[in-house]
Specification:
It is built from three helices and four strands. By secondary structure, the protein is of the alpha+beta class. The chain has a four-stranded antiparallel beta sheet. A hairpin with a 5-residue loop joins β1 and β2. α2 runs parallel beside α3.
Length: 128
Amino acid sequence: MTLHEYFAPQPTSTVELPDPAPLLRSLTQGVLEVLAGVREVDQLARWFSEDAFRSLVSRANLSARARSARGVSPARPTFALRSIRVTEPVDGVIEAVVVVAGPGRTRAVAIRLEGLDRRWRASSLAIL
């Protein structure tokens, strides 16, 4: 093992990781609050890979510009988590869909979690 490989993030098996359901709930709530403008995106940085975090920052900036153009102030979103569907395509990877119902519409939040260094990190996020 080279020095670079030794200090690189180490994949972790699913059995060595905590239950992903609480993290999926928290990430979904956090992402919806970021998009609503009531939470700073930096608060979620530690739970995302670099690419997924950049994507979230871009989406948050677009949401902020849309709110500004319409003259709408940020407001805490009200929603209910309807269901969480989880699959495990390979060991140490979880793909989940969280269905969230709000007052105006129902959304699906797709999240891919990868086990790295004995904790889950979101490597992909899509809000449908």
